[in-house]
Design brief:
CATH class: Alpha Beta
Order of helices and strands: HHEEHEEEE
Strand order of the largest sheet: 2-1-6-5-4-3
CATH topology: Nuclear Transport Factor 2, Chain: A
Helix content: 25-40%
Oligomer: single chain
Largest sheet: 6 strands, mixed
Shape: globular
Structural class: alpha+beta
CATH architecture: Roll
């Protein structure tokens, strides 16, 4: 595995750390580690910029799905400053994964996320 591939995998690992961080302080720290200060997050339900707004989106998702965790499905693929990957939101009690998606991230020179473009591939009815 090349250092270049590690760059993408490390960025995605920090991304999941932010989404799975328990509590507001841990979440704020993880968001700051993963994203640039002016980082952007866009998916069908949100379009926000900056650590505070990104943290608020993550908090809202965790409140809607308590006891769930985001996990990578498949491998991280990347080139230049862009990586793509798929994920699912998994229940800690029964392993159900009612939500799944695919994201593309753009990284800065240090490997922090400048932008996320997310797609929801599977969403429960009424969510």
């Amino acid at each position: 595995m090349s250092a270049h591939t590690d760059r993408y995998e490390n960025a995605v690992a920090r991304y999941f750390e932010a989404w799975n961080a328990a509590g507001p302080e841990a979440r704020a720290k993880a968001v700051a580690a993963a994203w640039t200060p002016d980082g952007r997050y866009t998916d069908p339900l949100a379009d926000v910029t900056g650590h505070e707004q990104i943290g608020a989106v993550i908090t809202a998702a965790r409140e809607q799905f308590p006891g769930f965790a985001f996990r990578l499905t498949g491998r991280v693929d990347g080139h230049h400053d862009t990586a793509r990957f798929s994920w699912e939101l998994v229940s800690g009690t029964d392993g159900a994964a009612p939500v799944a998606g695919s994201d593309m991230v753009t990284l800065d020179a240090e490997g922090r996320i400048r932008s996320v473009l997310g797609f929801l591939d599977r969403v429960p009815q009424g969510a």
